[in-house]
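Issue 218. Parser rejects a valid record. Input:
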Amino acid sequence: MNWLNSEAFTLFGQHIKWSDMIGNVIGLIALAFGWRRSIWSWPAQFLSGVILFSAFATAHLSGSAGKQVVVMVVAAYGWWQWKRGTSQEQDGHIAVRFATWLERAVLAGAAAVGTLAVAGLFTAFPTLSWDPWPDAYIFVGTIVAMYAQARGMVEFWFAWLLVDVVGVPLNFAGGFAFSGFVYVIYGALVLWGMRDWWLRSRKAARPVLEGAPA
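Output the parser choked on:
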């Protein structure tokens, strides 16, 4: 499996690794499945996590590698959550909704506290990450986004967008150019998926509003 972490080609002066490329392409497929509200988003995210873990571990980026372990755990949770979920539309896909204000506050609070805690850990142990604060932000933001996706919350797209803002420059700086390019594509897919989930959540809420007493 050494070929997986070898150089595939050079793009715009950046050296592209097979593992970086394959893992992120599968990640894009997972995001597309997420946009379609398909349960297959989770196995794809799990497989992407396995491959990217190999990529980051061999590059001694412990923080990024650790994030992939968490991605795999949350992907398994998301699969279980969607598999057992009874809130599905007629097409068999998961129904989506906006989070309540309390859920939003919990997600934002968890993101803030988690980022501080993980950044503190990365700072205390420099071998875990060469750039602790952005790495911690992406680490925790990814977990928050995937959890919100597992719960069918439209806000998961906003969380992914905030992760992308930091993820693009960090991946280029870390030598994972393909990850950087893919994060740009992620941004476009996120905006597209956000629009789709937003419209679907409003459509699902409309019958309730129409049936309410005047």
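Fixed in the parser; the record now loads. DSSP finds seven helices and two strands in the chain.
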